[in-house]
Amino acid sequence: MADPLTLTQPVIETPRLLLRPHRLSDFHEWRAMFLDEGTRRFLSSPLPSEEESWNRLLRYIGHWSALGYGLFGVFDRADGRFLGDVGLADFHRGLGAEFDRCPEVAWIMAAAAHGHGYATEAARAAHDWFARTHGPQRTVAIIDPDNHPSLRLAARMGYHPTGECTYRNAACVMLARPATAAMA
């Protein structure tokens, strides 16, 4: 099956990574990441079926054509290995106007990519790209309060806690990053 829109999509290269919008051909590696219990331990959603996974990937792909931004697939430049997702999206979570009207950052890395600084490198690149192409904006995030690595990454990116919420029956910390935030 051909991957539509791949010629007009952004590609970001960092010293170690390649970031690009997802393609249909990413499905099996991408789904495997979400099926790994170690990777998904902080996700508030149940284990997705193949159909739910397919629909989620289509939603990620659709963000790009509808909004001009979305989640990037993150790949190792040296060997092309899939490492995870990083980017900004509009998930319409129903968490209030102060949250839902802002682009929401998200990241998830495959278990084999943990502890190598890939998430930080990819998140910096995605934020820089977003600011260049869409202008500086306030961005938001929700993170499980026990996900300390993700909370540390959010702090490095300039996010600060703004409150707490329950999303899909799970406690979350709500965070925001002002348009003028500097990354540590």
TrEMBL record:
GO terms for molecular function: acyltransferase activity, transferring groups other than amino-acyl groups. Keywords: Transferase. Residues 17-179 form the N-acetyltransferase domain. PROSITE patterns: GNAT. InterPro entries: Acyl_CoA_acyltransferase, GNAT_dom, N-acetyltransferase. Signal peptide: none annotated. PANTHER family: GNAT FAMILY, PUTATIVE (AFU_ORTHOLOGUE AFUA_3G00765)-RELATED-RELATED, N-ACETYLTRANSFERASE DOMAIN-CONTAINING PROTEIN. This is GCN5-related N-acetyltransferase. It comes from Novacetimonas hansenii ATCC 23769.
